[in-house]
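pasting for ref
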Amino acid sequence: MAAWLEQTAEVRHAQGAVPQGTLVLRDGEGRAQQAVMGSFAFSTDGLGVTPGNPLSLIQASENLAEAQMLSQWFDSQWAMLRDQPQAKAELIERLRGLGSHRDASNVYALMLHHLFANGDGLDEERIVKSATGIRNTVVWKKLYKFQRDGVVGAIDKLDRFGGCIIADSVGLGKTFEALAIIKYHELRNDRVLVLCPKRLRDNWTLYKANDRRNVLASDRFNYDVLNHTDLSRDGGHSGDIDLSHVNWGNYDLVVIDESHNFRNKKSPRQGNETRYDRLMRKIIREGVKTRVLMLSATPVNNRLADLRNQIAFVTEGDDTALFEHGIASIDSTTRRAQKAFNRWLELPNEDKTPSLLIEMLGFDYFALLDHLTIARSRRHIEKYYGTHETGRFPERLQPINIKADVDRAGAFRSIRDINLEIRRLNLAAYAPLRYVLPHKQQAYDAKYSTQIRGGESFFRQVDREESLIHLLRVNVLKRMESAVSSFALTVQRQLHDVEATLAQIEAHNDEIEELDIADVDIDDPAFETLLVGRKVKVLLSDVDLLRWKQDLIEDRNRLATLHALAEQVTADRDDKLIRLRDQIAAKCAAPINEGNRKLIIFTAFADTASYLYEQLAPWAKAELGLDSALVTGAGRNQTTLPGLRRDLTSILTAFSPRSKERPAELAHEGELDILIATDCISEGQNLQDCDWLINYDIHWNPVRIIQRFGRIDRIGSTNTRIQLVNFWPNMELEEYINLEQRVSGRMVLLDISATGEENIIEQQSGNQMNDLEYRRKQLLKLQETVIDLEDLSSGVAITDLTLTDFRIDLAEYARAHPGRLETMPLGCCAITTSIDADIAPGVIFCLRAEGAAAEKTIDPSYPLAPHYLVHVGDDSAVLLPYTQAKQILDRLKRLSVGRDLPDALACARFERSTGGGEDMRHAQRQLSAAVASIVGKSEERAVASLFSPGGTHALKGEFAGVSDFEVLAYLVVLPGAGERSGA
């Protein structure tokens, strides 16, 4: 009411009326009953409705005669407005608008406007400057509406904050969004660098090549492309770039593909600079101001703090870079969120709900993500954009699960028995430091150990060797699960290494060098940081030769036995291979999409892929008329199409010509139907011409399985249905996962306690999936259904942790109703009903702290200040305090979206319960409760600060009460028609 009266007073004053307030109350026949006039404000305290101490000179009528006299004077003043008819019409229209009922979506948009009206709106015209010509490019015209919104949002964040993480789900086209952003910057004459994993290099170089297969050739991209690993090199060439002469500091924009590979910045080796350190120092901090665009479907894995190091690229390591945007400390924000997440993880499973986690996380974490990330899921696209433009996503059929034996003849020993033999292996050839004599160990520690945390502790090379041996055991087990042929090759290589080491010892060399472990052909990225670095050299005189030889001979005997066992399982006895052939034949006989005979076979190992190609390609050509190809990323690509080149791009284009937009003049190259591949193509590839994907072996990391499936489970697929086929070990999954736990021993627990860090090995390898129980649950789930990547982290998606939806809602409303939100008065209200059981009746207030009190109350963990959202129940109990703003916004959205007309029945009920708005005491009690909850929280933190470093912010009189707040808007939520209200 106060806000409405203030609006009226402003209009009258603007038209030259006396700068005094005049209020006349009339009966039904228009006769004056009471009149008040004087220099009082048309506000709640000015009228005496709420406590206050205004200096007012007020004259009020004491009887009907005085009321009549004062009303006649008022009428004469009012009559003067006739000389300005537009003013009278405007005043009446304002009053009518103030008294009319509003729809819930209108008030929802108004609250968003107050919360986010700081230039953050996704306004394409404002952000993407037309003069650049970006809208005329091929890449821009290829974008769907949701992708264009993502590009606009990212460009805005790059301009305002210096960086952005695009975290859209697998299959939504992050690469094309990034290319549009790159083109926008190139049109502004910015120099752009793309950093990508080596296996994805061809993805990026194709779009800048003068190549007929480049669908964006006319856009003439001119960015540089370097591999992540190039950051570890000081010389040599990467493509046509001479690394020794690169001007690292001269890039205006750096695009980091798969940016989650840069989660960890701890330097793992003494005296060496990591890729993370070099990227930060040479590219981001040096030279010109560099904007950073990061692409990742998993920027937050099991650790919410993963985000911190990626954000550091944006802020150049400045922890207070977002202070003006409500984030006092990025480090503190992520640490608080991680602690809340850890507490949530410890809860019983029945209590561990995504909504509870969202409630436990501080709102500053949501705000941090909101400032720097663009994150949309498949569900998001379907809900907010529809599928009219993109087409429907294909239906995921229930996965086919196959448990095959190793040997159809039954002669090969069980996995359990083989595992026992693997555990008994010493693998002594790879651990010379294990046999160094005790009195010599200190000298080798000094030479080869890694200094950690500024010298507080050391990561001993002997510990690195032991960790590597545990990983090698796991590798042997995984290869046996993949294919018996790969198992035989691995055992044969290790047997050769043992014999070579024994030969060196027998030759009485003075010095022996640790074997080059890279020759073991280990494909898993978990090995990466253990396989690089200086070779260890030991003097034979410093080694217990007797013990070392005994262990080597024992290894030789065990490995020879295992090799002989594996060699007898030929292809005609390989049960897994035979079952795979049956699946391919069945798929061709009864395709799930008419005429589609394409399928991808994924395996973790190049050896297995080569074996499958040798066994399947001739058979498929002869029996089914299918052409096949092999892609391993190791230069051993093959194909049965005689005229087709063997580079990655040519093979993938022939396999999926429609999604790769192959030019018609290349149709003579033919089409491939079977693609056998390693994980070199598990990310960043559009292969949705295909509708079947087979996991010939199950990767330990469920993320990898979902990334593989994402090659065919993509936007723009013409397939109605898609099928996932999983080959599992022929034993219970729990038992098999426990095998890894026993084989790897204490490797996952090797935390080097003195460092205070989590698992050093795990951190260096970038493997955040070492929680076996977590993986067990996810892999079990994958037997029943295909789950989305964003659902992996215990059902919490990054799209649940951002405010993107609300910003899009605000932008859409502003586009549909230009200028409306800016002219809406304070105190707007809508009446609606709750149909959701979890949204109790009450009032959702949007408040703003005013005056000096607002400036004094600075809560570092609340970035929306001075704005506050509070949901108060019918009984005046606070249902959600302002610290749970994300949940309140979620409720507002559910209550408001689609309700574009006033709820006539709800409004009528509210009118009856309040006597036409005359009796608002119940709403006043709810408002008092809302304010009290804010003041109370503030006082709690002030008292807590007495016991915190840095002093206290407990200042007397921070909030005086209701008069320190303005009601910007509120939504009254009535119970359903069959329930009773306290109003």
